[in-house]
Amino acid sequence: SAADFCRDARREMQDITARGRIPLLVGGTMFYFHALEHGLSELPAADPQVRAALAEEAANSGWPQLHRRLADIDPVTAARIDPNDAQRIQRALEIVELAGEPPSALSRRSSPVPLPYKVIKIAVAPADRAELHRRIAARFRAMLARGLVDEVRGLVARGDLDAALPAMRMVGYRQIRQYLAGEIDHAEMVDRGIFATRQLAKRQLTWLRRDPAINWFDSGDSDYIAQIFTFLTGKISEIAV
Asked: Which of 209, 211, 215, 212 is nearest to 229 (CA)?
């Protein structure tokens, strides 16, 4: 969960800074980083029965329909969630069910503890959208060539990993599970996997662009790494002063 991640990350960052080093947080899960930077509101713990009921409802009517229900209850929270983001829609409705209040109301009443560090935020991405799409396609095909289908086949064969688990619904796994079940052929699996990854990248970029404190670098520039080092050298000097 995001709460587990924040606890673990803060512990590791404290250990790193105690040794006189600078923690680097690298990745693409924007919600988790936002939770780490700004803190989390006190919310009810997950309830397997409520989640199962919501998953069953989504199987019958679809996650966009549950998103519309969330929008009627809590338009503020719904506006921040993609209509197909099953995990976050499920969690928001779970909170409503358990707390009897919308998540946005609970957040306003609590006092999250922000990260006690000065943060320098950097985003590296191709400025050319076509280049981003080319890289996504190449990356997905490379993952397949390195055994991604066998990886998913092995996970499914274990028998203890429910298809509704967030890890089993992630981009790539979901499309390969459909292929292994005979629902789609290999070519369609590849097309769907690439398209789903492009949608994920679009959501990530949208999230990043909402943060005015992020410093952008174009990975299409031949010297972008040198640009980042120059930028960071100046920023660290400012912090040191």
From this structure: 215
* Helices and strands in the chain, H and E counts: 12, 2
Distance in angstroms (rounded) separating the CA atoms of residues 118 and 190: 42
Q: pTM, whole model, 2 decimals?
A: 0.69
Give the Cβ contact number of residue 69 at 10 Å: 16
Instruction: For 81-100, write each residue's pLDDT tens digit.
Output: 988 888 889 999 999 888 88
Radius of gyration for the alpha carbons in the chain, expressed in angstroms and rounded: 20
Q: What is the pLDDT of residues 105-146, one digit of tens each?
A: 877 766 667 788 888 999 999 999 999 999 999 999 999 999
- The dihedral over CA atoms of 49, 51, 53, 59, expressed in degrees to the nearest 10, equals -150
Residue type, 227: Q
Check if the beta carbon of residue 75 is closer than 8 Å to that of residue 47. no
Give 71's contacts (C-beta < 8 A, 6+ positions apart).
Answer: 78, 79
The tokens describing 212, both together, are: 């005015």
CA distance 135 to 140: 9
